[in-house]
Fold this protein.
Amino acid sequence: MLGPVILAASRSDLIRSLISAAPMTKQVVDRFIPGETVDEIVSIVRDLTDRGLELTMDVVGEDITTPRQAAAARDAYLELVDRLKGLELGTRAEMSVKLSMFGQALDGGHELALANIRPVVEAAAEIGTTVTLDAEDHTTLDSMFAIHEDLRKDFPQTGCVIQAYLHRTEADARRLAANGSRVRLVKGAYNEPAEVAHQHRHEIDKAYVRILKILMEGEGYPMVGSHDPRLISIAQELARQADRKLDEYEFQMLYGIRGEEHLRLVAEGHRMRVYTAYGTDWYGYFMRRLAEKPANLRFFARSMITKG
């Protein structure tokens, strides 16, 4: 399986330097990460929303080793909120955050991450939008869920992400679906051991459907994070069975993947949110996109060969 190999490469400084130095890397990376600065991303926001799409925005960068870097990540999101304010898009442009960026892995990381993320959630609420807490590897999830619960006391619209490949996720979904949460379901993109995660695609797909059914039948707001045509069709059927209206759930896909499908879903009346990342520290994010789907790796390799 290539996924674990690519994820291991994402932690290699040598491979990082080789890929970053390759002449065509930026052109390929731009497929997934359309800008490095707030100024560059604002035009993308306008373009996507003009076409009826919605966004969740991620400032990339997870290799946080000091409290100062964590504070800088907080400030980057606050700058984004400030720029979104003038666009008056409300929840059509929300934000996704990884708590590792806010210092979660440092000494006292749980309290530090909560202290750093709270002003971002407050600022988002002030402009009529919200924040979703991304899921990372399984060792961070108890802290993430605790922070999510704490934030929802004052900001109940705060969302979170659950990962279908983890054995624990069905229980997490039942708990979250019962209390009105906004929950994004994804397959999962970290190299997890067999004792905590399904290892085969068909097992993950079956778990995804079971968990999505829990969310659709619950009281929360499901966010279907998948590019898989079969899972998208299943999601539509589960929504119909649960008597959900089109504005009572949404689809989410990555920027740069299946763009025509984004517009097709919008044309059918669905809410379709594009996960849009930007920033200079793109390497870890980019490598996980390659690990998630072999087609992404083939696209990268073909571009390097034909245009390098």
The longest strand covers residues 272-278.
